[in-house]
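Quick one:
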Amino acid sequence: MTSDEERFLRRAIELAAEAREGGDPPFGSLLVGPDGAVLVEERNTTVTGGDITAHPELKLARWAARELSPDAAAATSMYTSCQPCGMCAGAIERSFLGRVVFALSGEQLAGLKPPATAAGPLLEGPALYAEARVPVEGYYV
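Output:
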């Protein structure tokens, strides 16, 4: 890891601390262009913003999808205080970001949190394939 990469990760950790100080979960991220310039920074605002999807990684992915071409997005690097969750990872993939560098892994984060008390949702499916495929078929050609 280069000294610049360490500096960017440290900034993501600072943003996480700012989020916590502001009453939100402690997560922060920044998006860096190929020239090393910081394009945008975000922190978690799920509590203060009343939006359970307001993760910094998702906000940056949405920004990149709106503001950058796919080629420009592919040349960026996201630096984030923690490994992106599944929701954010999906958005990052769809926004064509080129690289994600994180400080804490999801496993390390889990070790710092109390055990989950609720089970996840029950997922059922797939079902009605013949009908569900009609609006999708041919779209991704």
